[in-house]
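How a chain folds remains the central question behind the approach discussed here. No coordinates are needed to read the tokens, only the vocabulary itself. For completeness, the protein is quoted in full, as a sequence line and a line of structure tokens:
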Amino acid sequence: MVTRRARSQTRQAERADRAVIDIGSNTVRLVVYSGTRRTPSVWLNEKVTAKLGQDLSTTGKLPAKSIALAMNGLARFTTILKDLEIADVQCVATAAVREAKNGPQFLKKVREFGVEPRLLSGEEEANISALGVIGAFPGAKGIVADLGGGSLELVAIGEGTYHDGISMPLGTLRLPALREKGERAFRKAVNQELKSASWAKEQEGPLYLVGGTWRALAAYAMHRSHYPLTDPHAFKLSNAEAEKVARKLAKMDPEKLSNIAGISSSRAAGLPDAAAMLRVILSTLKPDGVVVSSWGLREGLLFDRLEPAAREQDPLLTAVTHFTTPRGASLSHATMIAGWTSRVVTPNGRGTERLRLAAIMLAMAQVRLEPNMRLKHSFDWAIDKRWTGLDHRGRALIGAALRGACNQPEVTDDLLALASEKDLREAASWGLAFRLCRRIGAGTRASMLTSRLTREDGKVVLWLDESRASLASDHVHSDLKSLASWLDCEAVLRIGDADED
């Protein structure tokens, strides 16, 4: 049951209450956030492609036309923020403004809109991007590579912190001039810059790719392989796979790339050059594969403000709780269901409890949907909705659990592309067990306290207190049989004194 306090907290969390204005070398972007502090939701995302850094290598200045575009965008952004009554606004400027001769004059104009821009150093830019990745991937260890229009930042992460952050003049607006000199000269120029990141060769872990151009690279790889997901966040490639994709992309026509879902024309323009640079990075640093992160600088700014206790919250469970509470779920109730089913679906335990708890909460929200919508709509929550703290295997397991909750536990080809059949079958049993729990007595606390589900000697045993014998309907028998059959067990129903714990 959702309490009045929970509803009030949910309404408060849904309010747009914080924003980031990111003045980058290629785009000037406004992102407005709502949701929990640990897992902010994008409420509004707008950008102006001003290309402030396009002339830095020739004139050393921000172009007048680009400044005008940026100012027009900022006028719109700040008007929207006033209308929304958002006072918590962080405004940051990065490589182009940092390096331009007329950068100080540009920042003076920005202040006229009533915001105070923070000019980030290259190291600060790298470190804040690292915080974004740390927030999205708790426990991550590796190298963050944040690619923007004016620069490429590299920074090491591990054990919840970062070190050795550097910025290099290898942004997408600068790469075309380097490639015009030929592939050999291009590789030499990139390797020369990478010498300042010699530590990266010794850093364990994957390369975490941050930035819209890298996400476009992932969109291409996913399109090319008929990947079953649409969200590039947490998409992984081995070094060999990434090299193969980058080699193909480096030779492609940007116009053809812009026809692929997830790749805008502006991203397509810089993608071949970025792919060529990725090949050099992979061959030089030799990371343990690549992982795409949709969290970066802007999310790092928000994560940096969190108290230590908030940083330690599980981002998946925090986000799922926020999403499902207004849809009838409850973390405490889901925890009780997880306990009630634990002796059947995870008799040995395999470190999947957080995934199972998330799946149960989503299944609780699922039953609030109309029956004809449940499977497709809720399955999309697992597969296509962006969750942090969840890899693509985890998405598949939750998806399988939601299928099981709809009594459709069969393993599909799309799910098999993301996880093993053994793991998917186990996850489907989570859903079947949830279905049985809810069937007995609408999944109430009373029904769980007067019943027990166990797995013993090749049998799945459901025990009901004698006073609850009336709950043993044909549907209960059917769902118990379905769960037992899925687990290759015999279904047994016991009432009263027949309980054998």
In short: The mean pLDDT is 94.
